[in-house]
Specification:
13 helices, seven-stranded mixed beta sheet, nine-stranded mixed beta sheet
């Protein structure tokens, strides 16, 4: 079934008939699209039925980012892909509100995901995007969630919008392109380019610039602080913060949903050493922010290899910034020995992790032929430059 591609069809979804269709498809199973389309087209126009089915599918996909709100919201395919996860948007909005921001220009606002979070934090938002369909969805979302009084949507080229007079600016350049075949990795190929977004941010009293978390550190502006954010252990984005409240050249890792936030202290990398009883796997945001040394200082740890972001220590120290494992075995990598050892211990369930290893966990699992009632964690990595396998179990908080 097709997606909404024009304003007339989208507008039809907002009519009583369109709303009736969307309500009927609230719990629709996409596997039943053909049967549902056949049934609904008996009493509704085919284009509207197709649009409603497409919107129902997008809403179901968007639940992962927006929770229950997604069932009332409106999406475009790009909007689902590029929108900020609601928990991350709420964190950023809370930081801005705490700085005293009351008015903000949201540039490249898309379907309005960030604008919604900002409005919920009490900030009045001008949401600007050049895509008329995305703007229509943003207006509909503001209405659907009761936030229209705080969100003005303007369809325009963001490079032509005067942001003077706003307390802050938020810029979220497009990082996907159909013409380029998906995700864009060159910051200057963003739309608009990163260089333009940086200059727009510098002109504001306070600004946040959303970028891909894999951005090279050398591409980051030296007069801003960069925050890497993970949610549930997955790194979601990086935010470049401009303004007097932020440390020029600063680095920070923030872990959601708990909200622990680690500012970098500019520490040198810790020295490597032998694997101790405890192994720490830093969160992805910590690794992206180059703050492994800061976590090492917290736990009194050392690296297991100069090129691997695993820390080890002889004593257990709690930290929200890394997952701890109790290590029982440190062995040279050998599949036959590993299989025999796991069989001897009755290991039928194994979590296989890797870092710095060319071995495929899926292929290794097939070769191990696990049997038994016990479980363990197998970590494939390098220790002092040598391929190694560590066995242990995670420490439960």
């Amino acid at each position: 079934m097709g997606q909404v591609t024009d304003l007339d069809t989208f507008s039809a979804l907002l009519t009583p008939e369109g709303q009736e269709l969307l309500a009927a498809l609230r719990d629709h199973d996409p596997a039943d699209d053909l049967a549902a389309a056949t049934r609904l087209r008996r009493t509704h126009p085919a284009p509207l039925v197709s649009a409603a089915l497409g919107q129902a599918r997008l809403r179901q996909r968007a639940v992962a980012k927006f929770g229950d709100d997604a069932r009332r919201m409106y999406f475009t395919p790009n909007g689902v892909e590029q929108s900020t996860r609601a928990t991350v948007a709420a964190h950023r909005a809370a930081r801005l509100a705490a700085l005293g921001v009351r008015t903000l220009a949201d540039l490249c606002s898309g379907i309005g995901g960030d604008a919604l979070a900002l409005a919920r934090a009490g900030i009045s938002v001008l949401a600007v995007d050049r895509d008329p369909l995305a703007c229509a969805a943003a207006r509909a979302n503001a209405e659907a969630l009761g936030l229209a009084g705080l969100i003005e949507v303007r369809c325009a080229d963001v490079t032509e919008v005067d942001t003077a007079g706003f307390d802050a600016v938020f810029v979220d350049p497009a990082r996907r392109s159909k013409a380029r075949g998906g995700r864009i990795f060159d910051p200057e190929a963003y739309s608009p380019p990163l260089s333009w977004a940086v200059e727009a941010a510098r002109r504001a009293p306070c600004a946040a610039l959303k970028i891909a978390p894999g951005v090279p550190h050398e591409a980051l502006p030296e007069d801003a602080e960069t925050e890497w954010i993970s949610d549930g252990g997955d790194v979601k984005e990086a935010v470049v913060w401009f303004g007097a409240s932020f440390t020029p050249g600063g680095r920070r890792a923030t872990l959601l949903p708990g909200g622990a936030s680690l500012p970098g202290a500019g520490l040198p990398d810790p020295e490597p050493g032998p694997v101790g009883r405890w192994l720490y796997e830093p969160d992805g945001a910590v690794i992206r922010a180059h703050l492994v040394a800061d976590v090492a200082r917290q736990v009194g740890g050392r690296l297991i290899d100069p090129t691997i972001a695993y820390l080890t220590a002889d004593e257990l120290t709690g930290t929200p910034y890394a997952t701890a494992y109790e290590i029982t075995d440190v062995l040279p990598f050998n599949v036959k020995k590993l299989r025999a050892l796991l069989r001897e211990r009755g290991i039928g369930i194994a979590e296989i992790k890797k870092r710095g290893s060319a071995v495929s966990p899926e292929e290794l699992r097939k070769k191990l032929r696990l049997e038994g009632a016990n479980s363990c964690t197998v970590i494939l990595t390098r220790v002092a430059g040598k391929p190694s396998m560590l066995l242990g179990r995670p420490v439960r908080a």
